[in-house]
Amino acid sequence: MRSDNQGNCRKEDLLLYAVTDRSWLNGESLYDQVEKALKGGVTFVQLREKNLDEEAFLEEAKEIKKLCAQYRVPFVINDNVGIAAQIGADGVHVGQSDMEAGDVRRKLGPDKIIGVSAQTVEQALKAQEHGADYLGVGAVFPTGSKADAVEVSHETVKEICKAVDIPVIAIGGITADNVTELAGTGICGIAVISAIFAQKDIEAAAQTLKLRTEETI
């Protein structure tokens, strides 16, 4: 079943999707690190803050939203629908334990991007039916970035891609060295955290990942 709310994000925008993490700031600002990633060719940015207070999160979201707009790259907020609505972000990404996609759609309106995490075909079909614009599927490799990550086989990724009409990106433990293992699964892009933000040269890491991903899909 195709969702009436599709079309808010293009497949090509999901090629190299960066999820922020302040674990590796090392004296830099998150803003500066995101700009380096954008210069390296990142095509989509998700601001993920699990431990920042609401006021600081709001200010940071406003600044990074402006930065992404300069690079013409979609900008979404992880989980926090209230902040996404308040700053006019391009959308929001929610997990299975967060607000359901249909409720997010009612809060944000028809023109915002809604991404949903999925680990099974059933979850993927439900998210699509409820108005998700894209799916983040994983973890496709072991990952240290999310303590609660469930591993998803590449066969399941393939099944999800076949089952839904909306774009699917892979997430979890993806690096420039293993991304080619995802060839043939049907994904339209990858989402990464440490493969960009934990690297000494963020811009170069993004460039390499983008190239390898283009070769893979």
Folded structure, characterized:
This protein is an alpha/beta fold and 217 residues long. The protein has a single domain, classed as TIM Barrel, CATH 3.20.20.70. It contains eight helices and eight strands. An eight-stranded parallel β-barrel has the order 1-2-3-4-5-6-7-8, surrounded by six helices. Helix 6 links the parallel strand 6 and strand 7. The longest helix has 17 residues. The radius of gyration is 16 Å and the shape is globular.
Give the domain tally. 1
CATH superfamily: Aldolase class I
Shape: globular
The order of strands across the largest sheet is: 1-2-3-4-5-6-7-8
Number of strands: 8
Question: Which regions contain 5 or more consecutive residues with pLDDT less than 50?
Answer: 1-6
Which class in CATH terms? Alpha Beta
- What is the count of helical runs? 8
Note the run of SSEs as H and E.
Answer: EHEHEHEHEHEHEEHH
CATH structural architecture: Alpha-Beta Barrel
Rg over CA atoms, rounded to whole Å, is 16 Å
At CATH level 3, the topology is TIM Barrel
What is the average per-residue confidence, as pLDDT, rounded to a whole number? 94
- Output the structural class: alpha/beta
Secondary structure: helix percent: 25-40%
Q: Mind describing the biggest β-sheet?
A: 8 strands, parallel, barrel
